[in-house]
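pasting for ref
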Amino acid sequence: MGLRIGQIDYANCIPIFSALQKNFDCNAYQFVRGTPAVLNQMLLSGEIDLCPSSSIAYARSAETLRLIPNLSISSINTVKSVKLFSRFPIEELDRMPIGLTVESETSVALLKIIFQKFYQFTNKFVPVVIDGCSVPENACGAILVIGDTALKWSLNFPDLYQYDLGELWFSLTGLPFVFALWMIRDEVVGRRPKEVARIRAELLEAKEIAVSSLERLASECTDYTWMSREALLDYWQTISYDLTPWHLDGVRAFFQYAREIGILEREPTIRFLEETQKGGS
């Protein structure tokens, strides 16, 4: 069996996966599609081998995972697809129940950090199943929405207050926010080093191809007819696919704040794939 690669069904993942699948022989790979929350669990249980997975998932299981270097799904200021949609100005949301997407752990943790650490709010958080066409009928003052659904809500519900979590984080910390890291299971690295080295190299090259060809990808993409080509291109140009030392400062700050408010028991050690390939622990 070839490497099993988790593929998130969101627009922000299209450039990398499209470049990978169009420019490299992927017959040896099995692509498994799903939401971040589902793929997180599949990665941790060993049902898939690698995936762009939620940053908070790495923090909880860092001892079993390695990060592929120079790859992420991040924002430097605005992210557009992780938003709090609110019936009230954000300053009035203290003590109100807040609805949460069930599709992402990292975005949920980020919202809790912003509310508790920076706004000193006390809220009850309620999981909510969300679609792109209607606002759930509930008593929540605001709802956290992510991915393609957030992009649709931005178009469909202009009367709601919209707060971009990437923009809020950047304004509060001055750091990028890394929503997803590319992770691979330690035991896969040990068992299949040549295949791991190959996919690592192909993903890094696919990133370079993707970033240099976003206009063409937007022209060819047929899955997002509800967005204009210009809007899709603008969204992709907003995303950062890098993982620089500055990005890692954002990751470490996120882990620190998550520990301080009780989401994490401890801050994990950040371990990269090269350490194993060179014989590191």
